[in-house]
Design a protein that fits this description.
The chain has about 260 residues and is mainly alpha-helical. It is about 85% helix and about 0% strand. It has 2 domains: about 130 residues, Tetratricopeptide repeat domain (Serine Threonine Protein Phosphatase 5, Tetratricopeptide repeat, Alpha Horseshoe); about 120 residues, Serine Threonine Protein Phosphatase 5, Tetratricopeptide repeat, CATH 1.25.40. The longest helix is centred in the C-terminal third of the chain and has 27 residues.
Amino acid sequence: MFSNMGSVLIDEGKPTEALESYRKALAIYEALVKENGTNAFYRRELATASGSFGIALLEIGNKAEALANCREAVKSFESLVATDPNDSYVRRDLAVNYRNLAEVLAKNDDRVAARATFDQATKSLDELATKDPTNALVGYQRGLMYLSLSMFLADGGDPSGAADKIHEAIKIGEALIAIAADNNSARELMAQSYFQLGKCDALLAAKAATEKGTDAWREAKGHYQKSLEIYQDMKSKGTLSGADAGKPDELAKEIAKCDANVR
């Protein structure tokens, strides 16, 4: 229950409150593991809570402690995978925590280690998707991973590479929505991905010559508008999370910038 409360609070953009819930969950799981050290379920839940706690710490700017918790989560999941390499659920959780660790490493300015860890996440999730192409949870986590990798590359000054990765995320999101049009997680992934693609276009536009730059600004505006439409639809249906409440206004500003740069 405390873990679930933490997840809800993170979605609502309340990381400080989420930390308190995750801290309570961690205390319970640590006690369970101490008493039942060979219980794989308790060990997995402890590792998951540790990773979630790390991401919440990152949200409030505590980068060093976030890194320690995410590393501990990865170490725990690697141990679980070594015990049972055929457990696809644990392998998926390990891949997700590789992605989380990569994000934290990037925030700690260790871009070399971050990229290597992103590559581990990519390899693991791609392998799982190849073995079970219909697994929507794996697909969703792959989409988030490519989104995160795209943001990492864009921040590192590689908008072309970032655009390639975000196209993969969009392709995955489209496949998930084709399966279930009301999949809110997939729609949020699509909104975030179009937003990110718009940012990639804007970065490319800023580097380009006049005519080419103008075309890129138009493309950026089109992708921002697609993202805005999804967020507005989610808002009208009451499914827009608190963490995303400011996205429509943010997108409106980005669209205005595009209009100002189109000659």
